[in-house]
Amino acid sequence: MFDGTPCHTLYVKNLNDKIKKIELTRQLYAMFSTYGMVLDIMVSKAPKLRGQAFITYKDISDAANALKRMQGFPFYEKAMMISFAKRESHVITQAKKYVPPKDERTLAKETNAKLAAKKKPAGDEEEPAATIYVENLPDEANESMLNLLFSQFPGFKKSRPIPAGGKAFVEFADPGAATSAKDALQGFKVTPDRPIKLTYAKN
Known about the structure:
Layout (H helix, E strand, L loop, with lengths): L8 E5 L7 H12 L5 E6 L9 E5 L2 H11 L3 E2 L2 E2 L1 E4 L5 H8 L4 H17 L12 E5 L7 H8 L5 E6 L6 E5 L2 H11 L3 E3 L2 E2 L1 E4 L3
Antiparallel strand pairs: 1-3, 1-6, 2-3, 4-5, 7-9, 7-12, 8-9, 10-11
């Protein structure tokens, strides 16, 4: 089978189109993130795109490994058909163009310094907040990847990666919603060897 020219994005077809979009996205992320850092998953319910998805990895080698391992894998009673996408995802093309401006990098350093100064001694109990502070992310983690991870939880509002890399803020509607996501994703491995650390953001 010809799988196309290797790139960061996989084209997956023959998916069960009766599965709800959010559930399909969650299940695809759970399966494909075991092979590397997934930056984006695009699932559409448009008539011409039903039963199809595009999965974008940070590294081409991870995409190639996932293609090899998951080719023909039975998913909701249908064997997945996977190939490299004909065109790169906008997530990759934009990432290649983006260079953080100097003032943005400076702001990130100041933000990190403030957060470090506000950290409580070990053992202190955290006060719940509507915003989660995420640490130990890969430097390339972006808004699309964070939204993919956290939007599965009720009350999710938005994510804000810190340009310096490795950290982000994720906002929820209220502390209760933030707590549910924090408890569920504490230690979640966005790559096979990188568990994330979640704490409540301090005002």
